[in-house]
Amino acid sequence: MIRMLRDRLLLTVVSIIVSWFLIVFPAWAQATETAPILIDGKVVFEITPSGQYSAQKRADDANRTLNRVITNSFQPLQANQQQSISINVDSNQTLPILKIEGKHLLSVTPEDTLQGRSLTQQAQLWATELERAIAQERDLHLRTGNFPLELT
Q: Residue 66: CB partners within 8 Å, gap ≥ 6?
């Protein structure tokens, strides 16, 4: 009887300790590779692997598309012009797709989202972050007259 109570107490203590570590150190439960989406060398957000594609491969592809669209849009800008770049979320697919100027930028996967956030919410958040970063870069370009864009 005493041995059984001792074993239950030990099991309870071990369970509490393990639960505490998983709460305090959630990265242990969800450690994963990430890679940055960049505008002019500044991290806008980070993405994770998806299926056969590593996080770095996904980021490289998205950064290449970002670089091409931003460079093409901002090169001809003059001080009196305002150029906006459209960022949209296409939710008509299985996975939401971030599009820049109508071009596929990135599919948002379940691995990219935080617990409790939907795929569409994550896509909208990233679209807002991209819009903000692009606007800051456009304003810098208009103020300085140069556009030293380095995304990768």
A: 37, 38, 39, 100, 105, 130, 151
